[in-house]
Amino acid sequence: MPLNPGSRLGPYEIVAPLGAGGMGEVYRARDTSLKREVAIKVLPSYWSHDPDRLRRFELEAQAAAALNHPNIVSIFSVGEHDGAPYIVTELLHGETLRERLRHGPLRLREVLNVAVDIARALGTAHDAGVVHRDLKPENIFLTKERRVKVLDFGLAKLKQAKDESTNSATVTTPEETHPGQVMGTVGYMSPEQVRGQPADARSDIFALGVMLYEMLTSERAFHKATTAETMTAILNEDPPPVSQIAHGLPPGLEKIVNRCLSKSPEQRFQHASDLAFALEALSDSSSVAVAAVPQPQALRQNRAWLAALAAVLLAAAILYWVSRPPAVPSIESITQLTDDGVAKWVYSALQTDGSRVYFNEGTVGNLNVAQVSVTGGATGIIPTTPANAQIVGLAPEGSPLLALHGPFNYSQKSVWLIPLPTGTPRQLVGIVAVDATFSPDGRILFSDLGSLYVVGKEGANPRKLLDVGGFIGEPRMSPDGKHILFTHYANGFFGPGLVQVDSDGANLQPLLSGTSLGWTCCTQWTPDGKYIIFVRRGSAGQEIWTMPMKPGFLRGVRKPMKLTAGPLSYVGPVVSRDGNQVFVIGVKKRGEVVRFDTASKQFVPFLSGISAFDPTFSADGTWVAYTAYPDNTLWRSRSNGTDRLQLTFAPSDVAYPFISPDGRHVAYGDEKGAIYVISMDGGQPEKLADANCFAPNWSADGKTLVFADYKDNEHPEAQLLDVRTGKRSVVPGSRDLTGFQWVSQDALVASDVSQSSLKLFDLRTQGWSVLVEGKQPGNLINWSHSPDYHYVYYTTGGDNPKVVRVHLSDRKSETVASLKELRLAPGPDENTQISVAPDGSAVFTRDVGTQEIYALTVKWP
């Protein structure tokens, strides 16, 4: 129902209607509390019953509120009136670009000014993770003060933001479209949008190019009699050159328009800031003025002509460098090197000496060192001691291998040198490491939790370079020995960041934050030091990305670029010694839920053998919730497999789901460390805790959640959350413990961060006691309580991994099964899990996918 003048929406009093705007009706209103005029967009009441339109309206509010730029409309608040949501924004006076274009083409100076302002606004939005996807003249407002405002982020595609520090306002939310769904406005959509493919920042650049064309010519670049014909033109036709319609334009401007309108996203400007720079350079060259100095007329004219020519030549040179499509690395071919069907160890990088590729294969407790020719062929096993050595490096001269021996997680391990092709392995005495590698000069870089060291070739005289807390993974020194890159896990497993430091430990600076691309790790340098490659983990799997480390002239921005795009996940990359290939483990993920059958002493398919992870059961055993593997979405069903329902959708990664005792709700975490609760009947999840929280677990009465809070990075503690009131409290004495679970209404179990022991907390006495005393750090891998709360089950690491259960009443333990022959699938946080079925049997996810070695032949620019 339309609002009448004098109607009130909270503190806002409607003054007059302003007409339709995007998806809603727009009104001029007065903010009675702040004494200012505002604009209010209200979704029509009949639209509020349309979930898709309502969701798009909410996206507009989120996207606009996340951005702070003078060329983007400001949002003040969001509310709801009679079931219809509304957004309050600044009140603008002027006209839309569409209204301005009705009077003919814009003057060149005006075109450049408008386009630069739009490009700057888009640059800010893209850096915040927001892609507009519906740029058109109707969504560009020209104020009376000659300021440009970008409107209507109702179709915005919100990607993971580059920076989620407390000083930046960003929005991250799942995509609201699906492959094959066309979003945007015909005539301004990019070719990829017409095809129903995902849109990114370059799609907005295409739309800006269409508007540039229209502002210069007063004609639409793509405008046919029917929608289908227009869409066909976008895919297959080029508009008439701008110079044929608008005469006297700078030649460089036509190049800019043509590059924006390229059919291929890779041939367009890759960032709106690059486009703004090109337009500004052109604008500056067209406004050069000669100082008025008394001179002979002919001399003044010649100097003016020469100055103008120099400016034009300078602008042309800049445009030549900037407007060229950026050269990007590309995969020319993929060759499979192994085909032995044996599981590969995906947690450490491959190694190569130029003729062979070295890797680990097998399962926890049965890990071998293997090799294969760089051209492919049979896999060979290298006999080594100690058993289960995890290889992490290879000396520059081709021998020895560097290996770690110890727990199969991010715990301290002994460091070993394994000669090739044969020889006696030697331990570097007195050194323990979380991760290690060789430097180009043959020294050894190693990390001990959050400290980074360098040591000589023989392991003597270790020197600490820096201490950053958390823990350090994958240290890698540049070929010239000047820089070190490593993955910094500052908040446990949440958002690891890629960090660069000088080789002496000085000038620590982030290179990629954990939120800019999602989870990134496992960096490697190319032999010439010009590029790095690294792994990015997404909801669909792992991909190999690359980034220039020595950008050329006028191309100085380090921008990560995707190198692989499926169909497999790729991990453990290493660059060949000539730099022409990248050797990787290609992973096809597939899991099978199994339980240990005590009668047959075998692991047998469970829950119909679905490809799932971390099943959790209601107290009565009727319901089960689980994470689909490998896309990490949340599902529920009855324990017999019926009544299946998907509860969450990609790209959000679900980790550690836990079903409430009454079977009505599921608590879970995501890749950001937020805690949610969702109904077992589906619907909108409710966020209960923000980032850096881990593994929620219900109390026996279903009234309280316990979870690990990592806000202090290195020192987690237990938080209790009353789900009815939202009140939170800290469990006394829980600092530096993790993995909290209820084992009765009055008791919690947890492990110390070194995973060497399990401890029990009694809420009545407020005291902790030891439940399981481990033999060494990392001995305890994962644990879970039985649905009846009588037992705690846990898994061990080492050479003989097994499943053990402890009876809580008398604290007696017994071995349930050996895990040495079980090939466990890695879960959402690249770790394995244990669950307990209602009948008390241990439940795991068996890896039935494939892992083989591949060679990616790369064409570098």
Describe this structure in words.
The protein is mostly beta strands and 861 residues long. The protein has four domains: 1-91, Phosphorylase Kinase, domain 1; 99-323, Transferase(Phosphotransferase) domain 1 (Transferase(Phosphotransferase), domain 1); 330-587, TolB, C-terminal domain (Neuraminidase, 6 Propeller); 591-850, Neuraminidase (6 Propeller). The strands form 15 sheets. The chain has a six-stranded antiparallel beta sheet with strand order 1-2-3-4-6-5, with helices on one face. Strands 12-59-34-33 form a four-stranded antiparallel beta sheet, with no helix packed on it. Strands 13-14-15-16 form a four-stranded antiparallel beta sheet, with no helix packed on it. α5 (201-217) crosses α8.
Helices and strands, with pairings:
Elements: E1 8-9, E2 12-21, E3 24-31, E4 36-42, H1 51-66, E5 75-81, E6 84-90, E7 94-96, H2 97-101, H3 108-127, E8 130-131, E9 140-143, E10 148-150, E11 157-158, H4 191-194, H5 201-217, H6 227-236, H7 242-245, H8 251-260, H9 272-285, H10 297-323, E12 330-336, E13 351-352, E14 356-363, E15 366-373, E16 380-382, E17 390-394, E18 401-405, E19 413-418, E20 426-433, E21 435-438, E22 444-448, E23 451-455, E24 463-467, E25 471-477, E26 483-489, E27 497-502, E28 509-512, E29 519-525, E30 531-538, E31 541-548, E32 561-562, E33 569-575, E34 581-588, E35 591-597, E36 602-605, E37 612-617, E38 623-628, E39 634-638, E40 645-646, E41 654-659, E42 665-670, E43 675-679, E44 686-689, E45 693-698, E46 704-709, E47 717-722, E48 728-730, E49 737-744, E50 747-752, E51 757-762, E52 767-773, E53 780-785, E54 791-796, E55 802-807, E56 813-818, E57 835-836, E58 842-847, E59 850-859
Antiparallel strand pairs: 1-2, 2-3, 3-4, 4-6, 5-6, 7-9, 8-11, 9-10, 12-59, 13-14, 14-15, 15-16, 17-18, 18-19, 19-20, 21-22, 22-23, 23-24, 25-26, 26-27, 27-28, 29-30, 30-31, 31-32, 33-34, 34-59, 35-36, 35-58, 37-38, 38-39, 39-40, 41-42, 42-43, 43-44, 45-46, 46-47, 47-48, 49-50, 50-51, 51-52, ...
